[in-house]
Amino acid sequence: MDAVSSPIGAACTAAALLAAVYFVKQRISYSRRSNVARIPGPPSRSWLLGNMMDFFLPPEYGTYEMAWQREYGPVYRLSGCLGTDRLMLSDPLALQALMHGHDFDHDRVLGTTVGFIFGKDSVIATRGADHKRLRAALSSMFNAGATRGYVSVVQKAALEVVEFLDSQEVDGRATDVCPALHSAALRIISEIVVSDPDAVSTEYSHVNAQLAELPCNRTPASLITECIMSLLPPVFMESMFAYAPGSPPSVFRQARDLGTRFGHDIVRRKLEEAEADGVELDGDVLGEMLKSVRTKGNKHQLTDGLIADQAAVLIFSGQETTASTLTFSLWELARNPELQAELRDEIVSKADIDPDPSVLENMPLLNAFIKEALRLYPAEASTDRTATVDTVLPMSQPIRTPSGEVISEIRIRKGQLVTAAIGSYQRLESCWGPDAQQFRPSRWLNGENYQAQTLGAYANLFTFWGGARMCLGWRLAVLEMQVMIFELLRRFTFSVSPEAEVKVLMGQILVPVYKNKHGKRMKGIPLLVKRLE
Fold first, then answer.
1. Is 81 labelled a binding residue?
2. Domain boundaries defined on the chain
3. At what angle do helices 337-348 and 364-376 cross, to 10 degrees?
4. Class of the 3-531 domain?
5. What beta strand segments (E) does 300-405 contain?
6. Residue 171 carries which DSSP code?
7. What is the tens place of the pLDDT at every residue in 475-487?
8. pTM of the predicted model, to two decimals?
9. Which of 137, 259, 297, 480 has the least CB density, counted as fewest CB within 10 Å?
């Protein structure tokens, strides 16, 4: 019998619908009493959808969001579905409090979703002491010293992209480099995590790409469904993910099954090979964690199963995020030939030297370019948090409420949904200057400094988040961008294809799309690529 039509599935669906009616009524009553209702923001388009169509499904990322920020400032209210409210934050002081405080957690939908897909014991889903313990076990493999040791892995993948472009005999023809960059990013993270660049199957890689793009395909009905799910206990959401037909639940199930199998198969194979051959476990991320289990003390209290549960989230994070920003980086170089030529001159001046970290870190324009790409094209443009207790968020700039009251902090009630608008913060004029919407790497070279608060791990950017949830692999992401641009730009020129109109959409990450000659929407950016003489 099909799981969806089973009595269990039908019972879960009926229970979810009944619970939804109750929780929606409770949520609407809560929203009417919330302090966030006093914060100015754009008028709601409808009670059913609020401003959510404009926020999640604009013609292009930022069409409305940046306009709202200009009109209402870095703190404003959006109307959610079914009469709910969402607090939007790009104010650096508020984001700092959100990042470092203990009063906020993943919102219910996000927390349940990542737990379902990657496992409740994965580093992205765990909380408190368990999360701290897992991060400590993983961080030694992504610290500055460890990352320097990955240069050869990254360079090998970059040269494979070079070989791919040469095999295409590009010679000025339109070429979508996005697939090659994604393949390179996947091979890098796969070799670092499990010592095998080919460990991830085509099917698994494809499902991960689907996961990243799912939010691009939202509909009004799916937005309302997400809102209702946010009001339900996690057990109902998990039942829907497990039994509901269609996408996204079917993609969630496939990603969960493939990811779980991948992690546990890799761990089992590593242990069997080490025992059969009488050799030490590999020195990759999973191998080092497995070694720690077998050392005296096992200070992080790991188990083989717990280690296997980390593989899927590490692969997903490394596969999609950096490749997306790299694609946008090449697009910006193609759109600005003078910048491209200047950066190439800097790279060619080091052409006879291997791109080790000491060389890469001493290339001012290359690093300014990377910072600017990460500023304008953060892989994750926004992320949601929910207040776990009544709390207060400070603001760097006071705001005036519709009643005329001037406030410099916002009282947040337990359960309030808050959106960290990462992309908006990184285009905030008070932080980045009056031309914050423009791609201008020179802002990092001229001693310009608008930022008042320290955010994030790299260049005061929020791209990699910060605090206890800071991206573990941020140094690796920067290294990948440095090496990839170094190797590509000294061999090829990139220019814009006049036939491709590129748009930026907000999926799980920022996604570049264009229409092919048949009018079908495609992920990627076609560029005119030419080999240098």
1. no
2. 3-531
3. 140
4. mainly alpha
5. 383-387, 391-400
6. T
7. 999 999 999 999 9
8. 0.91
9. 297
